[in-house]
Amino acid sequence: MKKRILKLAGILLMAGFLAGCGKKESTEDIALIVEASQAGYMTNAIADAASQYAADNGLKLKEHAVANDTPDDYMVSVQEAAEGGASIIIGYGEKFEEPLYTMQKKYKGVKFLILDGAPRKAQGKKAKVRKNTRAVVYNEAQAGFLAGYAAVADGYRSLGFLGGEKQSSVAYYGSGFVQGAEYAAAQLGLKKDEVTIRYDYLETNEISPSVMAKASQWYEEGCELIFASGGSIPTAVIKAAEQKNGKVIASDVVQTSEKQAVVSTAVKDVNDIVYNAIGSAFDKSYDGGKQENMDLTNDGVGLSMDQSVFKSFTMDQYNEIVTKIVDGDPEVKEEYVSTVNEEGAVTHLTLNFE
Question: What are the residue ranges spanned by the domains of the chain?
Answer without folding.
Answer: 30-138, 140-267+299-353
